[in-house]
Every structure is written in structure tokens, then in C-alpha cells.
């Protein structure tokens, strides 16, 4: 049977189809807008995590290199504490710090904090790094059968105590005796012996020495959170706690019998030292200042010293060693070199390689100086004037004195010496080391605070150390 027409149009059905499609489209647009709104809100929340802005966390230390490693690692995590974006930053001033990082003994740290009128938030000082302890010698040694080593207690009493306990048994009285007998011995003095075997951590190894690790002997680096003061806020202390928690080594093994004996010996050793004795034992030379090395890299520095070693080699290696020693005294080290321009387009005779703001406490200069070559003529006066001007600016800004150590083979320029004399002051002193057989610039030596002459490779390091204030 056939379908009968109703006489009504099918337009009503088509209309409902269009309406339904429109509703679906509206729902889809609404969903997209809703998802975008969620995304925008999430981004706003993320951007708003630092609602309180930035907060600097000052970190002080008796081991700057370890502290800077920890600071870099912490800052790389973009830490946020109580709506503050935290930026850890090294400081020389214990009285301004929220955290103190130390490789020293409890007694040494306690005395230092007491001197700076600081107290700690906890008796627990977590380990945040471990440093390998070993022997520095002119060649690799067998640590199991080596003769009695040198213990540079003045530079690292903790490492000395740990090795004394490891090699001689957990006899506290004997370890204390080792510490007392070597209380004024330093790494640099020990390195001048004929066949030294020096107990150090790897970062204390003297230049050109070989480091042999002693198995199972590691020196802990610990972090201490300090209480608030007028200059250290509660927010800084909270940030300090987060720094220590984030830096903490999680898998530190329990102390061995030898380590416990070493700690007991250090406690007894520290208690027997007066404040004055401690200053002597730690060998902080009064004369060491922030130091700018200005090194002549002219062709004349390539001359042989008489034993197959050039003056250039002797002084680049010497500066590398002494720069690290200066940095260990918490002083900044800058490095410039000079000679007449060799490369096309270069018009001035000096190069500003490492400035005081590099923040590596001599390590940057110690590495950079080993890459210098030689060439050209020594434009000494104009380069020295530029270095002294920079030193004066830094001394004024930092409110700390600066020493410029000039190593020169002579002078081929004739800049007015009176201009240089006028720029020297109580805040900036100049030490001149004349190298080799070339003609000495006596006028330059006369305006300097001190001068010396070096004719052999062996004299390089002693001359540099004396000029630096050691």
C-alpha cells in the first residue's frame, strides 16, 4: 500500500537538524574557551608563585669552592620558599649569612661563629658534600706502604686527624699528639721539601703534584643554619633551612671507629688552643689582600732561566699556585696580561682576562694563566697604569684594599711615571717583580711599594708569595 502525503512540508525536520548542529558547535566553542581559561589560570598561578618577590640567601663558608658548588646546584632548581623566589649568593660576611658551609671541626666553627656573635638553629649539622682525602706527592704513591706523611694541620686539621686515625688506629691520644706536633705546618711549606707526601683533599693539591686517594677516607662538608639577627630576617633563615635540606647528602654511612676517634681528638685539640693559637695555626697572613696579577707575556718572557724552563713557564705556574693560596684566604684574584698588540684590530697593550667579580676565589685565574703564550714587546707602564686605575675603582667600590703584583721583563714604552704615582694610594699598593736579564725600569720600581728581581725559575714562587703577603 502506498504512503499518503500529509500535505505538510519537511522543512520542520530540517530546522531541528540545524538547531542541533548549532548547539553542538556552541558547546564545542565553550569547551575550548573553558580549557583555555584553565590553561591561562594555571600559567597565572605559576607566574604568581613568587608573590613576595626575590629573596637573597647569603651563604658564608670556610670552604668557598664547596660552597659555590652547593649554591650553583641549589639555584639551578629555582627554589621558592613562602612565596619568595630564593637566590643563594656567596658572602664573605658571616654576620650577614643565613647559612654557614664548613669543612672544619666543630670547635673551629664554634669559635668562628662566636667571634661573629652568631648562633645556630640546630645541633645537627648535616653533611652536604664529601671530599676525597689522599696524599699529594711528586709522583703516585702506594698509600698502604708509604712512610710517615706530612700533616698540614694549619690548613686542614680534619683531613690530618682522619688519616692519622685511619693509618695508626683509633688511639685518640696519639691523634691529638699528631695534631699538636704539626699545628703550624702548611701545604705550601710542605711542598718545598725534597720528597714530601702531604695529606690533603684533592682540591688542596699543590701545582704539579700527583694526588693519590686514600680508600675510605673522606672529609665531610657540613651546612649550619644560623639564627636571626637584626640584619638576618626570619625569611632568610627559612630559606637557609630549605638550602640545607635540599643540599643534604642522603646516603652518608655511619661513622667508623676511626672517624669517631678523629672527632674526639679534634675536640680535644681545639679545646687546648687559645684564640691566639688558633689564629697562628690557621695561618691567615695579615698582608694578603684582594690581588691583581699583571703578567708580562712579551717575547722576552720566553727566555730560558738556565735549566730548560722559561721565565714564562715558571711564572704562569707560580701564579696558578699562588692565586689559589690567595683565594683560600677569602680574597678575590684578578688576572691581566700585557704585551704590544699582535692580533689585527687590537690597539691596547693589556688584556683583562679575569676580573675581581668572577667569584671563583683564584681558581679562574689559576686555570686561565696556564693558557698564555708569548709575543710582542712589553708595554709595561701604560698597562700598569690601567691595572692600577682598575684596582683603585674596585678598592673604592668594595671598601677593601687591593694589591697589584706586576711581573715584568722590562719596559719599552715611556708613559709618564708621575701619572702612575698619583694613582697609587693607601688602598692600592704596587709590587714589582723584575724578571731576567733585561734592563730594569728603575723609575717604576721606585714608585712601587716594593720590588724584587728574579733570575732563576726556583725563585718565581717565593717571590710571588712574598709579594702576595705570605
TrEMBL record:
Gene3D superfamilies: von Willebrand factor, type A domain (3.40.50.410). PROSITE patterns: VWFA. Residues 290-470 form the VWFA domain. InterPro entries: VWF_A (IPR002035), vWFA_dom_sf (IPR036465). The keyword Transmembrane applies. Keywords: Membrane, Transmembrane, Transmembrane helix. It comes from the Bacteria. The chain crosses the membrane at residues 15-35. The keyword Translocase does not apply. This is VWFA domain-containing protein.
Amino acid at each position: 500500500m502506498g504512503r499518503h502525503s500529509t500535505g505538510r512540508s519537511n522543512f520542520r525536520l530540517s530546522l531541528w537538524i540545524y538547531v542541533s548542529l548549532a548547539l553542538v558547535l556552541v558547546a564545542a566553542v565553550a569547551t575550548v574557551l573553558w580549557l583555555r581559561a584553565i590553561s591561562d589560570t594555571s600559567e597565572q598561578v605559576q607566574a604568581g608563585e613568587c608573590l613576595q618577590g626575590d629573596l637573597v640567601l647569603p651563604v658564608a663558608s670556610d670552604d668557598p669552592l664547596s660552597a659555590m658548588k652547593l649554591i650553583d646546584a641549589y639555584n639551578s632548581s629555582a627554589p621558592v620558599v613562602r612565596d619568595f623566589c630564593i637566590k643563594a649568593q656567596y658572602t664573605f660576611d658571616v654576620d650577614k649569612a643565613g647559612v654557614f658551609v664548613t669543612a672544619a671541626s666543630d670547635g673551629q666553627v664554634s669559635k668562628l661563629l662566636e667571634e661573629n656573635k652568631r648562633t645556630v638553629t640546630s645541633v645537627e649539622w648535616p653533611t652536604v658534600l664529601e671530599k676525597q682525602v689522599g696524599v699529594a706527592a711528586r709522583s703516585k704513591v702506594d698509600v698502604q706502604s708509604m712512610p710517615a706523611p706530612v700533616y698540614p694541620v694549619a690548613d686542614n686539621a680534619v683531613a690530618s686527624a682522619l688519616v692519622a686515625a685511619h693509618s695508626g688506629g683509633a688511639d685518640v691520644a696519639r691523634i691529638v699528639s699528631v695534631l699538636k706536633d704539626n699545628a703550624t705546618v702548611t701545604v705550601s711549606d710542605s711542598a718545598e721539601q725534597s720528597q714530601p707526601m702531604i695529606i690533603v683533599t684533592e682540591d688542596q693539591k699543590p701545582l704539579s703534584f700527583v694526588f693519590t686517594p686514600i680508600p675510605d677516607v673522606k672529609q665531610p662538608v657540613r651546612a649550619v643554619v644560623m639564627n636571626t639577627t637584626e640584619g638576618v630576617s626570619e625569611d632568610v633563615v627559612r630559606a637557609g633551612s630549605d638550602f640545607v635540606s635540599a643540599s643534604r647528602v642522603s646516603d652518608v654511612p655511619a661513622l667508623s671507629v676511626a672517624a669517631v676517634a678523629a672527632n674526639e681528638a679534634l675536640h680535644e685539640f681545639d679545646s687546648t688552643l687559645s684564640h691566639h693559637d688558633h689564629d697562628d695555626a690557621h695561618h691567615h697572613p695579615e698582608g694578603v689582600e684582594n690581588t691583581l696579577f699583571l703578567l708580562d707575556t712579551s717575547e722576552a718572557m720566553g727566555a730560558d732561566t738556565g735549566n730548560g724552563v722559561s721565565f714564562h713557564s715558571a711564572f704562569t705556574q707560580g701564579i696558578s699556585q699562588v692565586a689559589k693560596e690567595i683565594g683560600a684566604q677569602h680574597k678575590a684574584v684578578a688576572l691581566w696580561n700585557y704585551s704590544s698588540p699582535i692580533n689585527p684590530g687590537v690597539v691596547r697593550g693589556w688584556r683583562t682576562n679575569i676580573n675581581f667579580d668572577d667569584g671563583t676565589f683564584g681558581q679562574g685565574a689559576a686555570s686561565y694563566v696556564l693558557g698564555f703564550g708569548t709575543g710582542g714587546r712589553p708595554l709595561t707602564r701604560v698597562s700598569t697604569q690601567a691595572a692600577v686605575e682598575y684596582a683603585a675603582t674596585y678598592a673604592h667600590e668594595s671598601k677593601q684594599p687591593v694589591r697589584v703584583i706586576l711581573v715584568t721583563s722590562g719596559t719599552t714604552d715611556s708613559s709618564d711615571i708621575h701619572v702612575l704615582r698619583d694613582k697609587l694610594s693607601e688602598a692600592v699598593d704596587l709590587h714589582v717583580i723584575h724578571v731576567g736579564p733585561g734592563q730594569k725600569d728603575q723609575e717604576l720600581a721606585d714608585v712601587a711599594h716594593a720590588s724584587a728581581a728574579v733570575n732563576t725559575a726556583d725563585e718565581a714562587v717565593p717571590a710571588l708569595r712574598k709579594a702576595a703577603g705570605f
